[in-house]
Request: fold
Amino acid sequence: MIPQAFDYYAPTSVADALRLLRQHGEDAKLLAGGHSLLPIMKLRLSTPQCLIDLGRIADLRFISEADDGSLAIGAMSTYHDIKNSALVQARVPALAEAAGE
Reply:
């Protein structure tokens, strides 16, 4: 089945994504990969009027050490990023291994 028509936005900053989310309110869905949302839309179990794709927001894709020494992983980091991160491999090798499975 084909999903209902929708508007598509691909902001490049968190500020732009938040502005779009405020502008469209409950008619919007955030897209962060789409492995769950898109099949549901094809079945028309979810019919958002607009999708806001977070994939182009570079500030959401990072792996770093936080000020308190913990590992910080951005919301748009991929399994590939985690698997290949030298920081993750050194600090939490089991996580790097699991991300590769």
